[in-house]
Amino acid sequence: MSEKTRYRLDGIVPILQTPFTSDWKLDIGSLRCLADHVVREGAAGLIYPAVASEVSKLSVDERRTGLEAVLTRVDGRVPVFAGVSAASLEESRSLARHAEVGGAAGILAQAPQAVAADPMTLRDFFHRLASSTGLTLMIQDLDWQGGGMPLELIQQLFDELPTFKCIKVETVPAGPKYSQVLAVTGGCLHVSGGWAVTQMLDGLERGVHAFMPEGSMVAIYRAIMARFASGDREGARQLFESLLPVLAFSNQHIDISVQFFKRVLVAKGVFGAATVRQPILGLDAVQEQTAKALVGRVLSLERSL
Asked: For 79-127, what is each residue's pLDDT tens digit?
């Protein structure tokens, strides 16, 4: 087993959303505001861009411009991990080198779909990506409908790659995968949860080090973690259960999540508009009513902390 020490990034590490103007251009001013907002609310670090950032709808130039704005605004206050997932290895390597030059602390990478099914090809992908930069590598183990990367491959990569220190587990189910990864790496691989934040209490019970949700509810998530860490598990449970209607609505689909949490950020004065780029599964009239009520719920929960 590797003799690595665990990477320290404990707490809430949000994925920043990408704000757009009313004519669908990148809104750098609002992106800077969001970076300030999550740091002010106590984020342990942050990630940009990733799935919740609508990264698939950003050009390479927009990805670079947005990351540069975030790095400049954060200015070393917390670690920034750059999302470098792309359709090809060479594009991911280029994004990783750009992130390193800009001062990022690490990179977040998911392998392209074309290589994800074969463990040997997947192993080669991460070896070649890691060789392009000295930054800490966080692997995104994302599988919307299954168990994600083989456990044996995760252990092998952890032993082989000095920079592979973190994994973001987003599998179905996530809980057992958290425990299995922690066990085979002796607790030395930093394990975080993302899309599976609906099982946050389960993750805390299993010793997950960080959670990586979107960027609008950092204060609430931090309060849940703080109560749990202090031994107030009942208080953590009560606060989490107060949030469940929000998570049940937003986690129906990634498109609903993106649109809903942008509405939260507008209501908080962080974003100027909740504009999203097409194609997207839009909210109908009933969902808009539900979203409006749940935005109010989020604001009320924050005021109660």
From this structure: 999 999 999 999 999 999 999 999 999 999 999 988 988 999 999 999 9
Name which of 203, 222, 195 is nearest 301 in CA terms: 222
**At 233, is the secondary structure helix, strand, or coil?**
helix
Q: Which helix (H) or strand (E) holds 130?
A: helix 119-130
What are the tokens at 208? 């997950």
CA angle 196–197–198, rounded 5-degree value:
85
Does residue 173 have a cis peptide bond before it, meaning omega lies within 30 degrees of 0?
yes
Per-residue HEC secondary structure of 54-121 comes to CHHHCCHHHHHHHHHHHHHHHCCCCCEEEECCCCCHHHHHHHHHHHHHHCCCEEEECCCHHHHCCHHH
Residue 198 token pair:
């609906």
| Cα angle 202-208-211, degrees, rounded to a multiple of 5 | 90
Say how many Å lie between the first and final Cα of the chain, rounded. 42
Joined tokens for residue 4? 């690595």
Whether the predicted pLDDT of 182 surpasses 70: yes
Distances (CA, A) of 216 to 23, 79, 156, 157, 261: 23, 18, 36, 33, 6
Q: How far apart are CA 254 and CA 280, in angstroms?
A: 9
Q: Which two tokens stand for residue 248?
A: 């049940």
Q: List Cβ neighbours of 226 (8 Å cut-off, separation of 6 or more).
A: none
Contacts of 231 (CB under 8 A, 6+ apart): none
* Residue closest to 47 by CA, chosen among 107, 103, 4, 93: 107
Distance of CA 18 to the CA centre of its chain: 13
